[in-house]
Design a protein that fits this description.
- α1 links the parallel β3 and β4.
- α3 crosses α4.
- An eight-stranded mixed beta sheet has the order 1-2-4-3-5-6-7-8, sandwiched between helices.
- By secondary structure, it is of the alpha/beta class.
- The protein contains six helices and eight strands; from the N terminus they run βββαβααβαββαβα.
Length: 231
């Protein structure tokens, strides 16, 4: 398929959704999905990134459990399905899969070799873990759940990091947010933005808590950051 590529890893192969910008070669952004898989929202995010001049690649992080997950955020059954996948997800293996995606991306003939990570919730956590353990050019995390559990790895974070936190996030407590901010305060390469009054997934196109103004602000900051770091 034109919009799919296959990623090869030591543990097997998995697919990734890919969109290319009009002008090539281009830098790339690896987009890491929430608990809903590579669904309509993630594909829309890839559309937006390609329109901004990036190669956008969204790997199937759930391939070890259930390949091809594509869930509807408005369905309670799909929510429960996604949360079960999230609970059972192997984060260490997931970080290795993200890096296999990065390596594949770097080798694409239409790539400049510059690659950033961008993720939401589960994907936001995987951005943090992967950037702390491996080498990437830049990293953007939107409301990464459980990030506070991995703050012991912050010393390995060498890539520029941009993090977005919703102050009223029902999945990331205020205490956890305070821990994250404190741990990153001493990192010159890390910037954390807080969004007062916003709830989890305020920037998700189809989310219950979508807020156009806050989403536009966060996404503008992200776009400026990516263009700056990947030029």
């Amino acid at each position: 398929m034109e919009n799919q590529i296959v990623i090869e890893s030591p543990d097997g192969t998995f697919c990734a959704y890919i969109l290319r910008p009009a002008k090539l070669p281009a830098p790339a952004v690896v987009v890491l999905h929430e608990v809903f898989g590579v669904n309509a929202d993630i594909r829309a995010t890839c559309d937006e990134l390609a329109a901004q001049g990036f190669i956008a690649i969204a790997p199937d992080l759930f391939w070890r459990q259930e390949p091809g997950v594509d869930l509807d955020v408005t369905s309670e059954a799909d929510w429960q399905h996604g949360l079960r996948l999230y609970t059972a997800f192997d984060r260490d293996a997931g970080a290795r899969d993200v890096m296999e995606t990065v390596r594949t991306t770097v080798e694409l003939r239409e790539s400049t070799g510059k690659v950033a990570l961008l993720g939401y919730f589960l994907g936001g956590l995987m951005v943090f873990i992967t950037a702390a353990r491996y080498e990437v050019d830049a990293a953007v995390a939107y409301h990464g759940g459980d990030t506070e559990k991995y703050l012991g790895e912050v010393g390995g974070l060498e890539a520029p990091l941009l993090m977005h936190l919703a102050e009223e996030d029902e999945f990331i407590s205020k205490a956890a947010q305070a821990e994250i901010k404190a741990a990153l305060a001493g990192k010159a390469n890390a910037t954390v933005y807080s969004y007062p009054g916003q709830h989890h997934a305020f920037a998700r196109h189809s989310g219950t808590h979508y807020n156009a103004a806050a989403a536009a602000l966060a996404n503008r900051r992200t776009s400026e950051f990516l263009h700056q770091q990947l030029q």
